[in-house]
Structure formats: structure tokens, C-alpha cells
Write a structure and sequence with these properties.
This protein has 340 residues and is α+β, with helices and mostly antiparallel strands. Helices cover 41% and strands 23% of the residues. It is built from 12 helices and 14 strands.
Length: 340
């Protein structure tokens, strides 16, 4: 009997990833035992910590603790705690990874799930983690109002594109009493790629660059889809990322701003109004790097507002710029030369 018990245990561990929804039935059919008895064997492995149980009744699924895949759905309610979800469902699968990977995943997962709980206004959240080859990916999907739409409404912005601009700066939140607005900024830089799909807009931060596209997904509906991908062999640490954008005096004080997000691609950056929208919230930082990648030309009024008017109003802020083509660089240099 003891020998047969061990065979059943080994069978469960070997087969559960292929049979997450019907492992008990699979055991019963394979060993010619009752489903009730098979369920006891499965429950024993859950108690030992070998398996992770998610869901309930006919939606119950089992996943291998220390395995390569898990997925589950949760009801969004006040007592849902992101740290408990991490400890119960996600952490057991990343314990095999190096310490730096575990810390990056812990930070990113808990920050994003907490945002869902506090901001999404949704009722359900779906989570999936998978490890394939040397790539770890975490997906979090909610059925809420949509992150870009929420920011657009909060700031009374004209476009979703502007909402993404403010989100990408860091230190932006629709609820400053509960959040610093730093979570998405740092998470997007810890992972190799960080993507958000919401309100028919797809935004990705990868290799220190921004990618934006409009996509229709008729079966998606409302809500926010976030995917974080990490190379499990990276030597990057969460501390490395924090130190890149922080100093000892003020903490998180440095940001990169994609100027291209401040206006439609077909709308040149020429006006003071455009510049003012770009500069919203940057007074929270000590160092600002404006990234002009993708910007073909800019106007004198835009330059004057950013590099003279705003700088005179905020003399303590160090404003630099990168990735400017020859025309843009020439216009900025001309504006800087005229600055008193």
C-alpha cells in the first residue's frame, strides 16, 4: 500500500501541469480508485505545500508549487491583500529563481495588483505567471474602467496619449492620499519589457524606450491588461533601478519624459500650450531628461516655454535633453542662447 501511495504521489506531481482542472479524476482513472480517494491524495499534496490550489467548486485548479505556470482569478474586494496573493500563489513559483529576480517580481507584482485593487473600479482580476526557457512573464488583467481612461478623466485631458505621458513620468496618481505614483514607473524599468493595453491603446516600455500603438480588440472589453516580462538570467536588481532615479536628499528625483507622447504624431510641437501640458507634474523632480526621439521639429514658442519660462519659474530643476535631431537641437540651442 505504501509503495502504491508513493506511485500515486509521483504521478500527481508529474501530471498536474497537464491536468490542472481534472487531476483527481485523472488519478482515479489511472489507478482504478474512487474519485473521492483520489481527491484525498491530491489534498494531501496541497497540505504538504507540493501543490497550490486556486479557485473553488467546479473552478478549482491545481498547480505545482515550484512549477512553471499558474493562473487564477480573484474577486476584487476591500480585504483582498496583494502581499497575501503574492505569498500564497506567486512566490512559490519564483523561489527557484535568483534572489534579484524574486525581489523584482515581488515589487512589480504587488505594486500592480495593489493598483488594481485601489484604482481599477473592477470586480474581477485574472493573474497568470509562466516561466518558459529563460523568460518569466506575469500577466494581470482586470475588468475595471481602464487605466488610461481613469487618468484622462482625473486630469480632464483631451486624449489617452496625454494620459500615458503623465503616467510615464512617475509620481502621478489619481489618489495621492494612498499612493506615491512611483509603482508603475519603477516596475516598468525593472522588467525587460512592461506593457499596458487599455482603452484600445497599447503602451510598452522596453530597453529604455517607449512604444505606442492603437489596437482594436473586440473581445477584450473594458479594463486593463498588463504584462511584465523578465529575463531570469539578468543581473539587474531592484536596488540598481531605484538608485538610477534617486538621490540621498530627495529620494525619487529623476525622470525621463517622452516628448512624443505630449502631442499627436501629426501635430508638431510648436505652441506654449503643448509645452505646458508636457511640463505638468515635473516640478516634483530635481532632474528632468526630455527625450526628443521621433520629434522632427519644434517651434520657438515651445522651446521658450520649456527652457526659459519654466526654467525661470523652477530654477532648482535641472532640465536636460537627449535624442534631438539636428533641427530640434539647433532650435533648442538658439532658445538657450537667448535665455537671460
Amino acid at each position: 500500500m505504501e509503495k502504491n501511495t508513493e506511485k500515486i504521489r509521483e504521478f500527481i506531481i508529474r501530471e498536474v501541469e497537464r491536468h490542472p482542472a481534472d487531476i483527481a479524476l485523472h488519478v482515479a482513472n489511472s489507478f482504478y480508485i474512487s474519485r473521492q480517494k483520489a481527491h484525498k491524495f491530491v489534498s494531501r499534496e496541497v497540505q504538504k505545500g507540493t501543490l497550490i490550489k486556486v479557485g473553488g467548486t467546479r473552478w478549482t485548479r491545481y498547480f505545482l508549487s515550484g512549477g512553471k505556470h499558474i493562473e487564477f482569478a480573484l474577486q476584487i474586494k476591500k480585504d483582498l491583500a496583494e502581499d497575501r496573493v503574492w505569498s500564497q500563489y506567486i512566490r512559490p513559483l519564483v523561489l527557484r529563481c535568483p534572489d534579484n529576480i524574486q525581489k523584482i517580481c515581488a515589487y512589480g507584482f504587488t505594486e500592480i495588483l495593489n493598483n488594481v485593487i485601489d484604482h481599477s473600479e473592477g470586480t474581477r482580476v485574472f493573474v497568470e505567471l509562466s516561466i518558459k526557457d529563460a523568460e518569466l512573464s506575469i500577466t494581470i488583467l482586470d475588468n475595471g474602467v481602464g487605466i488610461f481612461q481613469k487618468i484622462q478623466n482625473a486630469l480632464n485631458l483631451e486624449s489617452v496619449r496625454e494620459a500615458i505621458l503623465h503616467l510615464s513620468k512617475g509620481k502621478f496618481t489619481t489618489d495621492p492620499s494612498k499612493h506615491t505614483g512611483e509603482g508603475i514607473f519603477f516596475t516598468s524599468r525593472m522588467f525587460n519589457s512592461f506593457s499596458i493595453f487599455s482603452n484600445n491603446v497599447y503602451y510598452t516600455f522596453k530597453n529604455k524606450d517607449w512604444f505606442l500603438s492603437s489596437e482594436k480588440a473586440e473581445d477584450f472589453g473594458r479594463g486593463t491588461f498588463i504584462k511584465m516580462v523578465l529575463d531570469v538570467n539578468t543581473k539587474r536588481t531592484s536596488r540598481d533601478i531605484f538608485e538610477q532615479y534617486s538621490d540621498q536628499e530627495i529620494g525619487f528625483g529623476k525622470t525621463y519624459v517622452a516628448v512624443s507622447l505630449s502631442a499627436d504624431p501629426n501635430d508638431p510641437h510648436i505652441s506654449r500650450s503643448q509645452a505646458k501640458r508636457l511640463l505638468i507634474g515635473l516640478d516634483k523632480f530635481k532632474y528632468v531628461i526630455l527625450d526628443f526621439k521621433g520629434i522632427e521639429s519644434i517651434g520657438q514658442a515651445f522651446v521658450d516655454e520649456v527652457f526659459r519660462v519654466y526654467k525661470n519659474e523652477h530654477p532648482s530643476i535641472d532640465i536636460q535633453y537627449i535624442n534631438a535631431n539636428q533641427e530640434v537641437d539647433s532650435m533648442i540651442r538658439r532658445g538657450l542662447a537667448n535665455r537671460p
